From TrEMBL:
The lineage of its organism: Bacteria, Pseudomonadati, Pseudomonadota, Gammaproteobacteria, Oceanospirillales. This is Hydantoin racemase. Gene3D superfamilies: 3.40.50.12500. It is an enzyme of class 5 (isomerase). Its EC number is 5.1.99.5.
Length: 250
């Protein structure tokens, strides 16, 4: 099977790190490719960033559908930007890393805490917990208070701050697992787990394994109800090329 990892931001080094983390966990016979939008924010740290990046996610799914042969997509940002829109565009499963991480964390623990980058993005995570029905499983959302790109530019300092916050979660939150709240942490999971001594769930690899499972089971995104293909219509301005788009793409 072929799974496409979409990094919704435009930082190529982060896309490469996410790709590598996913490849290391892919099953035998699974091909993992990665892409990112041509335009958009270099990191996603606000509602505004998410709105802009959601357009890029949709464009990347459309590119994948034109290429053909992609069996599932992973949206590799913890805010799951554009997730439902992406599901409308394809029969292939589309998995968001926050939703995937929440599901897997509840399979290994009755309670978990989230450790994310900035405090303001914790509010976005709180909204997702409510939307997905996991609020009662999450004890606390903690922030290491590091910008996303510090994971690239100052990796040692960022790692130290994340581990410190994970240890506080372990000692203070009465939890059994930790969810890492940023796709840029994908390559840190095992190191953090060794330091903290708890199961650490990271969304990119969690989403990859869920995508593999859905493909293996022959399950696809339903085209009935609200996830049916969008109706062709006229788009104006910079989106005019989407006018009368006939899905599925041939």
């Amino acid at each position: 099977m072929h799974i496409r990892i979409i990094n919704p931001n435009t930082t190529a080094s982060m896309t490469a790190a996410i790709h590598q983390a996913a490849q290391q966990q892919a099953g035998t016979g699974t091909t993992v490719s990665a892409s990112q939008p041509d335009a958009g924010p270099v990191s996603i740290e606000s509602h505004f960033d998410e709105v802009i990046s959601a357009v890029g996610v949709a464009e990347e799914v459309l590119k994948g559908e034109r290429e053909g042969g992609i069996d599932a997509y992973v949206v590799a940002c913890f805010g799951d930007p554009g997730l439902l829109a992406a599901r409308e565009l394809t029969r292939a499963p589309v998995i968001g890393i926050a939703e995937a991480a929440f599901h897997l964390a509840t399979l290994v623990s009755t309670r978990f805490s989230i450790v994310t980058t900035l405090g303001r993005t914790g509010i976005i995570a709180e909204h997702l917990l409510q939307q997905y029905g996991f609020s009662h499983h999450c004890r606390r959302i903690r922030a290491a208070e590091i910008p996303v790109l510090d994971l690239e530019h100052h990796p040692d300092a960022a790692f130290t701050r994340i581990v410190e916050e994970c240890c506080r979660a372990r000692d203070e939150d009465d939890i059994g697992a930790i969810v890492l709240g940023c796709g840029g942490m994908a390559n840190l999971t095992q190191q953090i787990s060794r330091e903290v001594g708890l199961p650490v769930v990271e969304g990119v690899t969690a989403a990859l394994k869920l995508a593999e499972s859905l493909v293996s089971l022959g399950l696809h995104t339903s085209k009935y109800g609200d996830l049916a293909y969008p109706r062709p219509k006229t788009f104006t301005g910079k989106f005019s090329e989407l006018s009368d788009l006939a899905l599925p793409l041939k």
